[in-house]
Structure formats: structure tokens, C-alpha cells
Write a structure and sequence with these properties.
By secondary structure, the chain is an alpha/beta fold. It contains eight helices and ten strands. The radius of gyration is 18 Å and the shape is globular. Bound molecules: adenosine-5'-triphosphate. Adenosine-5'-triphosphate binds next to β2 and α1. It holds the Pfam family ABC_tran.
Length: 254
Amino acid sequence: MSTLLDVSAVTLRYKTPSSLVTATERVSFSVNSSDRFVLLGPSGCGKSTLLKAVGGYHKPSEGSIRIKGREVTEPGADRMMVFQEFDQLLPWKTVLENVMFPLCVARNMSKAEARERARAYLDKVRLTKFIDSYTHTLSGGMKQRVAIARGMAMEPDILLMDEPFAALDALTRRQMQDELLQLWEGTRFTVMFVTHSIAEAIKIGNRILLLSPHPGRVKAEVSDVDQVSATDGSAAQLERQIHDLLFAEPGHRE
Ligand SMILES: Nc1ncnc2c1ncn2[C@@H]1O[C@H](COP(=O)(O)OP(=O)(O)OP(=O)(O)O)[C@@H](O)[C@H]1O
């Protein structure tokens, strides 16, 4: 197993006109190739900020972020992001064109190459029938599938997913979680996934990093999720253990 991403003692801050907000403090972890690495913690603990920093959109105040040994200093096609919002697609382009666009622009592919690659990934997310549709005609789940296909088609080193299913209804959310795992079984891509749902973390992740409430610090890492949750009844037990670890601080209320 090789280390792909190394986050070392990273502190992330926001400067506002009136104050300095510390989002995360001295957070360290590493992600290996083919990990389904989940960042889990309560609202405001800095999960999204950490993901943005890995994406190259937020510079650490202290510490370093390295991918394949190179320091992350800006966004790059080696790290693709999928967001929660349904409006991350270009409404004036069709489904196929949305997936082709970054392939042409950031990967310098010819239109024919990009079309072929985009079709293959849209097929993986079961959207072949909808390639010529405009995105406003799609359901929330279908839009997220397009965003996932667009990210995966770039074949990045790591796919960064920021609560991608949080705005979906419960049934669609479960379907999308299953589909993501099936996609992973097929290609074993590396994914970093942000959620504040313990159940979702256990379902998606093989490793889960638990962050404390604001400012986010590492509380613990659960690194054998697949083995533990495969045993009968133990997913529920793991959920309780993670809950206790996350909310152990005296006086902290959910
Ligand atoms: N643009 C910003 N300017 C100032 N402070 C910010 C900004 N964005 C986030 N913060 C603050 O940084 C901290 C971490 O925010 P972040 O969105 O990363 O947390 P999170 O764990 O992803 O939360 P949630 O689960 O609610 O999305 C919070 O205290 C938040 O108020």
C-alpha cells in the first residue's frame, strides 16, 4: 500500500474583517491508494475547509499537504472535487458536454477522445440514455451522477467528495452510496469523502478520521472499517463507538 496524500500538522484559518477563525488545528493524516477515506465530524469542525485545502483552494497557515510527494499549492486535475450542490454543472451544456468540457480544457483531449471517455464514464453511472439532456431536466440524484462521472472521467489521483449525497432524499442517498461502492469495486479509485453522518461514514469508508468540534483536531482514526462492519450486528456497535468517541467531551451537546 503506497501513501498517496500526506497531510502534516495542517492548521487552516480564515481571515475575516473582524477576526481570525481557526477551522482546523495541526491535523495530520495520510491517504493510501484505493482508500475510501472519510472525514467525519460535527458541523463546523473544518471538514470542508480541509477538503478544499487538499483541492488546492485554501492555503494552510501551518503544516503541509503533499500528493505523491509534491506540495499542493494550487488546484490541479490530479484532484477533482464533487460538491453537495446540484448546481455544480453548466446549465447551457448537455450531460455529455458537461463531462467532456474539463477533458478538453484541462486534459487537452481532442473532442473525439473526450466524447469517447465521457460516454464510458456516463455509462458507468447509468446515464447513457440521458447524454443529450440539459441538466435542469435531471433529478438531484442524476445531477450528482453526472458530477461523479465528470470527476471520475478525469481519472484524478484522488476524488474529493464534499457531502455529495446530503441534499438527496433518504432512499436516493442510499442508492447513491451503493452505486459509489459498486463503482469503486470496478476501478478502486482513491476517494476522500466528507460527511457528518456516522452511518454514511461506516458505509462508504474503509478508514474514518474523526475530528473534534470547532476547531477541528484529530480525535481518532478507525482504520479497519471494512473488517469490523462486515460482521453481523457490528456496524451498529461501531456506530455507537464512533458516536461515543466523537461526543465524549464533557459538556458537549449534539
Ligand atoms: N469563508 C469563510 N470565512 C470565515 N469563516 C469560515 C468560512 N468558511 C468556513 N468558515 C468557518 O470555518 C469553520 C469550519 O467550517 P467548515 O465549513 O470547513 O466546517 P464543516 O465541518 O465542513 O461544517 P459543515 O458540516 O457544517 O459543512 C467554521 O467555524 C466556519 O464558520
